[in-house]
Amino acid sequence: MSGSSTSGPVRPAAPGPASVYTYGPLAARDPDLEVLLTDGLGGFALSSVAGVPTRCYSGLVVSAQPPVRRRTHFISPLETLGVAGREVTLHALEIAPGVFEGRGLELLTGAAVWDLLPEREQLFAGVRVRRRVFMPPGSGAAVFLYDVQSREPVTLRLGGLFVSRDMHHVHARVPELQFSAGGREVTVRGPDGSPDGSGDGRAEGGPVTRATLHAPGAVIDALSPQPHPQRVYYRHDAARGEPDHEVTLGSDLWEVSFPAGGGRAALVVQGLTPATAAHTVTDPWAAYAQEAARRSELARRAQDTSGVRDELVATLAVAADAYLVRRERPAGVTVIAGYPWFADWGRDSMIALTGLTLLTGRHAEARDLLGTFLASLRRGLTPNNFHDDGGGAGFNTVDGALWLAVALERYVSVTGDLSFARSSLPALRELLDWHLRGTDHGIRADDRDGLLLAGEPGVQLTWMDVKVEGWVVTPRHGKPVEVQGLWLAALGAEARLSDALGERPQYVGALARARESFPAFWQGGAYADTLSADGTPDRSVRPNAALALALPDTPTTPAQVDRVIREVESQLLTPVGLHTLSPLDDRYRGNYGGTQVQRDAAYHQGTVWPWPLTAFVELLLSRGEVRRARAALAGLTGHVWEAGVGHVSEVFAGDSLRPGGCPFQAWSTAELLRAHVLVSLAEAQAARPAPAPTPAGPLPLSTQNLT
């Protein structure tokens, strides 16, 4: 797969990447094209394809306590090329809207991503400079590799913009940093103090950034650091109504002199923490080759596992790797819900598990991920999110634990891991017991009909969970329709896992009673979105009925499935996902932007979300509508290359469909992969002679698991 460019960077043929995408010189300038690199600990490096910082989260962010307590250490390299008495800057910094300092964008010949490893190429006075960037796993380091091709001697001056702060804040004034030079290594120590790192102290225990230069065969002149303030503008923060300017400290650190013909250099910038300090990048080029090979193997394993051998699977499988990180407390694999600002969230992790791990052949990580959240259950509830400061978790979710049950059954169905099923079944049964007798936030099975009640004033519990300044925008208290589908699926999972283990299911009666009661949602020829405790229907047109019907135990009829499909198509379906509220509703908000209050007010009131689109695709496939299912994915498939490169955004504005929220979102990316594989397998099945009859209801679980 490739873009329109034919003049972009060219990589040596071996080892070959599984996924390639190129951008021409004009497209590569776009600061809205962002690339993400991660280190598996919750740390990351983020910038535009060309290397322009675009938000306060741009640069090198390192996790002090995986995967939380993340600090920003470094914003951008400073790069100056000298040739024949002329100098030109290769970096570009936006200092005001549309105003750039440095000529980096003008000099681009193109950019490319190879298994989502970015590189750019620039041309000046006959000299070509290629820059590649990567993060060695577990390192907390961003590595910048420079390849210089020139007919005459040239110099490359390298340095950077440094900060030391909590990743959510910016420096409103010049940061107090201490530079210590030592030949090919420079350390930058930040202060202890306020969250933005601008405290008065310069304690010896302050955060440390280490910059190291490698340039074999070249002459290196270590420059004495001369830090100078550099103001940077963050366009994405401006659009979000957040502080959009920062003062950083910039300094040139080394000048590298190359002979005629050119040479290579590597700048390694590392945030030192207890988790990363022991990791030293001694050979940056060997480390790059190792990382490129690892990514290529991830892509090919996913193609083999899913049975779909195309570049979209390869791309999304490499993207999936970014979200799987190791947690320190509780120890184990977890999922970063979205970059750059989310930590790990339970609901998101369980929804994304199938795409991130089961379809990509990462079964050990799936088991470990399930273990992390099974071990974190409290009164039958899984954490909604772990706190960013590492100090605990919030449990305000009614659906997170139910998605955990669904994910557990999918894992066992895919892997046949009955040992894990046997060890996990007691926790699943305890989870169900808590829901039957009642747990926090009013979550309990209704004695009258066996359906699941949830809700208390001031608390948000479903995936439509935004709360801002004490305002729960979409409370949905009572019996949300998708929660009932999940409740049935969790009860059904216990029955099927018990059968597989030769044990007696313990909740057959509860499952039967809830199934008998579910038709109460069908009122007036459509499904209600929520029933109140007294049975009053909320007839808001939202994607939640589709979510419920795509689950394995939800009772429905072909006619009802067709009605939901028509409703989604006529009111919710867009090229990139489903509206969270019908545009025909008076409460609909088509603009997602502005301040946090403005954004949150629209978050689930019309804003488009990609991940529920997969449920709609499942309903189409259940009715044999393979071509319509493929068409529903077309826009989202193209979006993979136009915002968070290789990933899928969190949301889109309801009217303009402009990407918003996190440009890299776990469940969006994972569910596109699942939907694409579902449709691809259905297409392959349809192409075979005498295909089996298509079921008239929701897809059976074995088909949903996509193995």
Count all strands and give the number: 40
Q: How many distinct folded domains?
A: 2
Helix content: 25-40%
Question: Widest sheet: strand order?
Answer: 1-9-10-11-12-20-16-15-14
Radius of gyration equals 26 Å
| Straight-line distance between termini | 25 Å
Structural class of the helices, strands and pairings? Answer: alpha+beta
CATH architecture of the largest domain: Alpha/alpha barrel
Coarse shape? elongated
Return the CATH class of the largest domain: Mainly Alpha
Strand content: 25-35%
Mean pLDDT: 93
Low-confidence stretches: 1-8, 194-204, 695-707
Major β-sheet profile: 9 strands, antiparallel
The CATH topology of the largest domain corresponds to Glycosyltransferase
Can you describe what's shown?
With 707 residues, the protein is an alpha+beta fold. It folds into two domains: 20-193 and 204-285, Beta-galactosidase, Chain A, domain 5 (Distorted Sandwich), CATH 2.70.98; 307-685, Alpha/alpha barrel (Glycosyltransferase). 30% of the residues lie in helices and 27% in strands. The protein is built from 17 helices and 40 strands. Helix 5 (346-358) packs antiparallel against helix 6 and helix 15 packs antiparallel against helix 16 (666-687). It starts with 19 loop residues before the first strand and ends with a helix.
Summarize the structure.
The protein is of the alpha+beta class.
Main attributes?
disordered C terminus, disordered N terminus, nine-stranded antiparallel sheet, 707 residues, single chain, amylo-alpha-1,6-glucosidase activity, Glycosyltransferase, Beta-galactosidase, Chain A, domain 5, 4-alpha-glucanotransferase activity, Glycogen debranching protein, 17 helices, alpha+beta
